[in-house]
Amino acid sequence: DFTMTLYLRHYWKDERLSFRSNKNKSMTFDGRLIKKIWVPDVFFVHSKRSFIHDTTVENIMLRVYPDGNVLFSLRITVSAMCFMDFSRFPLDTQNCSLELESYAYNEDDLMLYWKHGNKSLSTDEHISLSQFFIEEFSASSGLAFYSSTGWYNRLFINFALRRHIFFFVLQSYFPAMLMVMLSWVSFWIDRRAVPARVSLGITTVLTMSTIMTGVSASMPQVSYIKAVDVYLWISFLFVFLSVIEYAAVNYLTTIEERKQLKKRGKASGMYSMDAVQAMAFDGCFHDTDVDMDLTPFPDPCEENETRASQTNISNADTPRLKRKRSLKGNVGRIILQNNHVIDTYSRIIFPSVYIVFNFFYWGLYI
Asked: Where's the Neurotransmitter-gated ion-channel ligand-binding domain (predicted)?
C-alpha cells in the first residue's frame, strides 16, 4: 500500500448558488456550509484508510462565484492499495494509481473529468522518498462497470516508482559476494589441514543462511521467487559447493595415501594409521612423501620429541639453519606437491562461473 497527502479540488457549476454582486468577485466559506448545499460524493477506490485534516479546524474551503461556479477544496490523507509485483525486487519499478469515483451517481447523473488534463496534477518539485524515485506522475480517466448500478466515471492519478538499489547492495548483495569469495580461500589451504578448511566452510554457510533469513524477514511473504532470492540462493550454492569440494578432496587424498602406504609396506602394527587419520587425532602433520629438509612449516610434534631426546644442542641447530636458508626457494614447490588437482581446477572454475553469473544476473534485471 501507499499513503498520500493531497489537496483535492472540485469544480462545478450550480446556478442555484449564483448571486448579483458589483463589489465581490467571489465569496469564501468554511466547512459549515457544506452540509447545506449539494457537493459531489467522490470517494477513493481501493482505499484502506483516509481522513480530512482537522487541525485547527477542518481543512475545507468552499468558494462561490457570482455566476454559480463553485470551488470545493479538501486536504486529505489517504492510504490505498497498490498491486505490486516483487518478482524483480529490489531491481523493480512499481506502477501505482489513486482512483477517484462517484459513489451514488453513475455516468447518466454525474460526469467526472480532469479540468486541465494532465496539467491538473501539480506536485512539489522537492518530493523525495526513502526507498523510491518518482519516475512518472500523470492523470487519466476511464469507466467502471457494476452489474447492479451501471457505468461510472473514474479518474486515475498514476505514478511510477523505481526502487533505490544502493541500500540493498550494501545490506544483501555485497555481503553475499564477500562470503562467496571467502569460501574460495579454502582452495589455497593445505588439503591436510582438515580443521581449517572445515571451519571456514561451515562459517561461510552459516553466514549466508543468516543473510538470507534477514532479507526474507524484511520482505512481504509472496508465493513467487524474487530477484534477490535468485542471487542469494545461487551464492549459497557456491558456498555449499566449496564445502563439498573439500569433502571430495579429503576423500580422494585418504584413498591415495592408503594406496601409497600399502605399496611401501609401511602400514603395519601400531603405525598402520595413515597420515590424515593421525593428523585428525594428534593435530600434527605426518607426511612421509615430503623431505623434512624442505618443509616450510615446523612440525610441533617433532619439535617436542626432539627437545625431549636432545643431547647435543649444537648438532641439533645445524639442520634448522639449513632449512631456513632453503625455505624461500622451495615453498612454491612444496605447496604444489601438497595440493590436490581438484583444488587447482577449483581456483579457476569457481571464480569464472561466479563472474559469468553476475554478468548474466545484472544484465537480465537491469
From this structure: 1-164
**How far apart are the C-alpha atoms of 178 and 171, rounded to whole Å?**
12
**Under a CB-based contact definition with an 8 Å cutoff, are residues 42 and 11 in contact?**
no
Task: Indicate whether 149 and 206 sit together in one domain.
Answer: no
- Whether residues 216 and 245 fall in one domain: yes
**Helices within 73-193 (DSSP H only):** 166-168, 174-183
**C-alpha cell belonging to residue 330:** 622451495
Report the C-alpha gap between 184 and 239 in whole angstroms. Answer: 8
Q: How far from the centroid of its chain's Cα atoms is residue 218's Cα?
A: 10
CA angle 203, 208, 211 (to 5 degrees): 130
Cβ(182)–Cβ(204) below 8 Å: yes
Is the same domain home to 135 and 238?
no
Kindly report the CATH number assigned to the domain that includes residue 206.
Answer: 1.20.58.390
Q: How far apart are CA 42 and CA 110, in angstroms?
A: 11
Q: Judging by beta carbons within 10 Å of its beta carbon (0-12, 13-18, 19+), is residue 355 exposed, middle or buried?
A: exposed
* Grid cell of 333 as nine digits: 614447490
Which grid cell sits at 119? 496539467
pLDDT, position 258? 86
> 3, 78 in Cβ contact below 8 A?
yes
| Grid cell digits, residue 181 | 569469495
Domain assignment present for residue 73? The answer is yes
Residues 66 and 148 in one domain: yes
What is the pLDDT at residue 96? 94
Share of the chain above pLDDT 70, in %: 80
φ/ψ region of 68 (left if φ > 0, alpha if ψ in -120 to 50, else beta) reads left
| pLDDT tens, residue by residue, 147-197 | 999 999 999 999 999 999 998 999 899 999 999 999 999 999 888 888 999
Quote the CA–CA distance of 243 and 344 in Å, as a whole number.
15
